[in-house]
């Protein structure tokens, strides 16, 4: 058992590693609120796993780049489900690479499963059964799913386009998941803020939530040195550009090195957390976009650039620690797990602003956010749950209509907790 796990992480780790019968393990759904340690738990689990037998799949291209995995769609040969489910199944079953992968593997881990629509999972499950010539769920493959349905919804959510939450599709029950809910907060250690977040996660806006948010609402001071979250990308880019321009000193334009197939590079540009050119100055506030294996920083850690060198950035983190950051490579993997495109640059973004979507999975030090006129279930919760403490929260505006959770999600978690 790895050291440093919470009691609920220990229980989940046991479920992930204990045989139910010789050579057979349960299908497990690891879930819990933001900051409950889902990613850390899976990293510990993967230490003893052969990724050739248990590949890591992600619901989106951006998530795949961050976790060093492949997309669920490409791995199962789904494409964009051209021609509908039946045509997709037939096409995938005729694909020699898809059939070889599915016959050789023992199972898979799927990250951010909440962003995969139910019909997508269902088509993949049918493909797995047919290819492996087995009537067992997923043809006998083991499934480890990770995610939180109370955060951002699936991309194909419109029922008219075949979307919907994965857990309401028959494939979810057919998979026979053992639910492991992580309830202990490891990101946030602020009891009052944790109480408010727990209510916002399920769409509750009571007196406690209202009073808490109102106390932190007002004009955000001009000199605020933290990350402002906006719902839209154009707002984010404009704000960062203005703050960089206002900062004295020389702009350093550092081009991202690109390697690989031209079309793959174009795809990776849209999915990687770094852009084609990094424009920074000494003194700029930046966000680190990767986890440090030694634990000195995490995805979302912010700090000010103190020195810029050709192969190294010196950054003073907001906690006062001085670090040196080297360039890193972000790769797009094909369905076989081979890199087809790579982007290399310093793994940082300007951090005066970010979109709520881009901030999912990140841990921020200080944050200001506009919580008015949000349109997606879970969007407000994703934004607010980035912080380690409510003392570092500033709210420009908020309205109760922006804090909502899909009723089906609430019902699912209530049933899962029973």
Topology summary:
Elements: H1 7-17, E1 19-21, E2 24-25, E3 28-32, H2 38-46, E4 56-58, H3 61-67, E5 70-71, H4 72-75, H5 85-93, H6 96-104, E6 107-111, H7 118-132, E7 142-146, H8 170-175, E8 178-182, H9 191-201, H10 207-215, E9 227-230, H11 233-246, E10 252-255, E11 257-260, H12 262-271, E12 277-280, E13 285-288, E14 302-308, E15 313-317, E16 322-325, E17 328-333, E18 339-345, E19 348-350, E20 353-355, H13 356-359, E21 367-371, H14 379-384, E22 393-398, H15 407-417
Parallel strand pairs: 3-7, 3-8, 4-5, 4-6, 6-7, 9-20, 9-21, 21-22
Antiparallel strand pairs: 1-2, 10-12, 11-18, 13-14, 13-19, 14-15, 15-16, 17-18
Helix pairs in contact: 1-2, 5-7
Written account of the structure:
The protein has 15 helices and 22 strands. The protein has 418 residues and is α/β, with parallel strands linked by helices. The longest helix has 15 residues, at 118-132. The chain is globular and about 65 Å long.
